Amino acid sequence: MIISSGLRIRAVSAALALVAGVGLLAYEPATPTAGAAAGDLTDSAVTLRWSDGIIGADHSTVVEERDPEHFMYDDFDGLEVTVSQTDDIRAQSLDVRWSGWQPTPGSVGSLPGNYMQIMQCWGDEETGPLPENCVWGAPGMSDPGRIEPSVRGRGVEPTDPLAESVPDHYIPPGGGVAEVPFRAADSDEFVWSADIENVFGRWTTNEVRGVRTDDAGDGEAIFTVQDAIDAPYLGCGTPVEGAQADGRDCWLVVVPHGGHRLDGSAIGTGTNALQYADGSPLTPTNWAQRIQVRLDFASVDLTCPTESEQRPTVGSQLAARAVFSWLPELCSADGGAFSYLALSDAEGRRQVASDTPGAAGLAFTYAPVVTGEEGPEVLHAPVAVSGLVIALNIEEPDGTIVRDLRLTPRLVAKLLTQSYRHDVPGGYEAFTGLDEPPAWAVANPTDISADPEFTELNPEAPVRNLGFAAGNALRISGPNPADAFRELWRWIQADAEASAWLAGEPDDHGMVVNPAYEELGLAEPPAPDTVPRDVQACYQNTTQPQIPAPGYCTLDLLFFATSFEDAALRARLGQAGSKTDWDTLAVSPSGTPGWWTEIPPQAPGRRWQLAVTDSASAQLYGLPVASLRNAAGEFVQPGSASLAAAVDSMVPSEIDDVLAIDPEAADPDAYPLAMITYAAVRADQEDDALADYSAMLSYAAGDGQTPGLAAGDLPPGYSPLNDELRAQTLAVAEALVATDDPRDPPGLVPGSDEDGGDEDGAEGNGDGGDEAGGTEAGGPGSTGADDGAPGAGDAPDPAGLAPTGGDDPTDDPSLPPAPDGATGGAGDDQPPAVGDDVPVAQTTPGEPVGPMQYVLLAVLIAGLLGATAGPALLKLGPRFGGAAAVTPR
């Protein structure tokens, strides 16, 4: 099997999908399994005492002892640091906790001393890194509070008692004040501070500039480590010769700033930052106080040479983390080789229903593949249970991490519809007094943290400080469609309060829905499979005539993440992505001076982020998740028990063997957005291919359901299949290799439709032409060529942006054509007939909807990015979207 190193799950680009016209999401399966949730301690967790000295690679050997006579010794004696995981590290988040220290003095808006700085370094495998091996000093970052200016950089402080002992290469070529240059793992060249942004900057660094210690002497930070894909200059996880699974190890370094300045004087605790603890963490005396922890990285290169034919698998990103974990084990087993490419759910269904050579024979999907009487038979095998979640990264100014939040369907609807004043272009200016909010929004809260409905449910949650936590609060992927978004909207529509509010009824405090969204008819089915945006809403500040019209618009303010994982990572890093800062030094696309630039990431202690993501991605980046209100009125978080209860409450979809959410199911223990991912296998393939796919399903239903962190395990964020679902998968696996026709396994119903529906049954598969997707607008449906589900009923097309019906993006010859009959015509949009006594969850045909000012932006983005991005879209780093969405790392 070949697991390509050319694509990456956390570097997925919706633009790549849109260039192809199919809603494609591309990932690199270089790191197959997620780590533990960052807040959990694993078997490889390590706790080190500062007083024990600087410790080497084995977490026990002392490579440098502390000096009890040093003036800083009493500052840190008793300090202990715990890192949640040190083995099998990939690009993920780790929990770093400390205890036994002194509280950070002064007000919560300042860091005079007793705070922690954290960084990632490469270095000697046994003794650890040198200061020049560490990522630190990115310019332009937001401070976590009032700090002494010198702690931000890489300088050697003249007052440092060890300043005279620094090596000669710390002196810049032109002379001057000594500083610690940076040297990449794969280079002998030194990079000085003036040029450091050419290597890493505020968007790509993972340094943590400062985290407070609480009154009990404890502190905590969630640190996001980077591998060689994200940070090639560190090289972490670079393959070790002769060891396929092992990668180059790196180091996590924490540097405490205590109660003394470098000259030996005690720190001041007032408002004068020049009296605070000083000096870069890299300056020699501060560096000598470090605690270093070696991180054993898994290899980022999991290429598996084989003579067997490669079997392509495609489909839902909900399955990505599980599939990435299983592939290396399948690679080492007998049988065929496999590749995996995460696509939109609908495109995965289209491919598996196609008989075009090269089309994938197995697709991971939530909804069934319904091919009709003339299409190939498709069998469905459940492989993973996970959930769509609202993840959070909310930090109190004192450093406390908020882990509990409750959300109702109406609150989520408010977030999705630009109904908070700060989610509308010009809303922030209205907040600061520069302008007036839209008339409809005058009575609406600035943001969710100021919403009385939210504060009544979450009295302990901090109010979002818009001066520090700029940008809108919600990270969400798009414009590519996903079955999970449809289920999110169905959950909202099934709630009486949320549905009434979407229809125009104010909430108990007078807040109303953005009227542009009210016109879309979101209160009633059909549920869209995306989050529409008012792309024509813009803000032009009349007091700044030098800013050209139309100012900034919705898509500048509300940045789309590229995937569920990207949304989670952005929330973890505090990256809103909003391009709403007017920079007179920036250059506009037309070459004139001045343009909108991205706001800086939020600093620790000042983050207020939510993300619509999947449970596995939330676990990967250590994000707590909100409790959502289910149909029984209970607030439930996703977990093994609540996901299992939700599965028990599911009902048949278009076919009996594929279960779907029943939004009205009233099990008080069930998480309302649990989802089963199915492997849909085309049954008319060659025997060798069927045998290989059978082996994959057998593994997925067997060892692949064992929760754990190792390759081959079921990663955190998934709930194991119950016995009934496992039995179904094993039955499909057996049927694929049976001597009888595999298209009719005992006890299973193939993915067909008596009424001859199209590939997605009730969903349709049109480009939104006059007869496709049920609209007369002539613009693209909600999913373009992917799905048309529910046709153009998801979002009308804005005049001047999307082409009229007839320009089918699926004409791209590089893509498998849609199966016969899957055109999304009106005749195909009818659901199959079922008895009244059988509850069926199904999508609803599209219907014409409101004004033509909304679009899912597929065609627009394809036009903007497709001609310029090219291969750069295949490889992204931690900074996603905006200009960086097409920036190779």
TrEMBL record:
Chain residue ranges for the region called Disordered: 737-848
Bias (Low complexity): 783-807
Biased composition annotated in UniProt, kind: Gly residues: 763-782
Segments of skewed composition (Acidic residues): 752-762
Name assigned to this protein: PBP domain-containing protein
Source species of the chain: Jiangella mangrovi
